[in-house]
């Protein structure tokens, strides 16, 4: 039987979200909240709090652009209120994400709540 690469707990889902977003950033794509939710088993209305906030805090702590700006609402293609800086989105698309290690579950568990 194949071994799971990621922990399926809450912080494992955050790591999965981070990896999904850097892949989308490399393709210069946005990602719907619902797609993030479906991929992680988190309901769409909780994606921001449960998944994107920890990704944002990790990016801020490491000095990376705000990766969460590429997550958008269905129908309007815009991020949630307060995350709609297009200049930041361009930074996300142009950033060399693969030059940096993704967060670990342990690292996320010790990241301050900002």
Topology:
Layout: H1 10-26, E1 31-32, H2 33-40, H3 47-62, E2 71-72, H4 86-94, H5 105-109
Parallel strand pairs: 1-2
Helix pairs in contact: 1-3
If you had to describe this structure to a student in words, what would you say it looks like?
The protein is mainly α and 114 residues long. Helices cover 48% and strands 4% of the residues. It contains 5 helices and 2 strands, in the order αβααβαα. The model has no long low-confidence stretch (mean pLDDT 87).
- Work out the number of β strands: 2
SS-derived structural category: mainly alpha
Shape: globular
Low-pLDDT windows of residues: none
Q: How are the strands ordered across the major sheet?
A: 1-2
Which band does the percent of strand residues land in?
A: under 5%
Please provide a brief summary of the model:
This protein has helices spanning 10-26, 33-40, 47-62, 86-94, 105-109, and strands at residues 31-32, 71-72.
Provide tags for this entry.
114 residues, mainly alpha, two-stranded parallel ribbon, 5 helices, 2 strands, 48% helix
């Amino acid at each position: 039987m194949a071994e799971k690469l990621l922990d399926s707990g809450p912080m494992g889902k955050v790591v999965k979200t981070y990896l999904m977003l850097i892949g989308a950033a490399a393709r210069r794509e946005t990602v719907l909240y619902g797609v993030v939710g479906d991929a992680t088993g988190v309901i769409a209305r909780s994606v921001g709090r449960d998944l994107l906030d920890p990704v944002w805090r990790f990016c801020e702590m490491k000095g990376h652009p705000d990766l969460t700006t590429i997550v958008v609402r269905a129908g309007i293609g815009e991020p949630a209120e307060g995350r709609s800086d297009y200049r930041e989105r361009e930074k996300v698309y142009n950033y060399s994400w693969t030059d940096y290690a993704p967060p670990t579950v342990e690292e996320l568990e010790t990241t301050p709540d900002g």
